[in-house]
Amino acid sequence: MTDIEDDLKEILIADLYIQLDRDKILSTHSLRNDLGVDSIGFVELRQQVERRFGVAISDDDFTPENFATISTLGRLIRQRRSE
Fold first, then answer.
1. Domain covering 3-82, topology
2. Considering the entire predicted model, what is its pTM?
């Protein structure tokens, strides 16, 4: 587990009010199906990620594929940070 993924879990619990213990959230859980993030939640998640990690997520990157799991979102954040 990376620091990015740990921070994403914190965002999900503190800001999106996911009702699971941190250690029960897996990086492979579907944000939509397993954790129950809805469309408004995804918009909030995008904003929180941009704020917390200092990255810009373009509309082209705001896709179901990039926001599928904590792992895929972490990969996107690492890509944006390296640019």
1. 1.10.1200
2. 0.93
